[in-house]
Specification:
alpha+beta; 6 helices; 6 strands
Length: 184
Amino acid sequence: MHPRALPGLPEDHAAIAVWNSEDWYFEDFVIGDKIRSIRRTIAEGESMLFNSLVMDHHPYVSDERFAVEAGVFGRRLVAGAFVFSLGLGLAATNCLNSFSYGYDRLRFIKPVFIGDTIYTIRENLSKVVHNASMGKLRVSYSVYKGEGELVLYAEHLLTALYRNPEAFATEAAAAMAEKEAGRG
């Protein structure tokens, strides 16, 4: 259970563990650990809703006739940004101690079509001391469709609070000094 209570909850409700929420600190992330998500089939309605929300009306994702008659793939695609969002969401955690720092190496490897079923494998790749209060992690997201065909790859950079900041104080001071020297 997360040690920080959520404001506005009755005490007996706050004492109940939050579903789908981890209490991981920097020290708890083990390099090489992997998790696999459940599978999820992408429906036409949600694909079109996403396209409308982000104003992506490219003919490959929104024009059935174009996609079938003139498109390279012979049918409509699911927008890559939607596959990215779903893929990460399938394996995302609700860890109150970590914060998104950015993404690297995003690649749309194979097309995803309406009706395809996807799942994600997330792997902890690396971690380094970042500053006095948190470290930085690199986590990969590999999104697959069908029976294991890789369709998307991305690396998520995130920071995570230290459980015991004092244990990282010397290394953090050196890392921060090195960053400052590089800016000068």
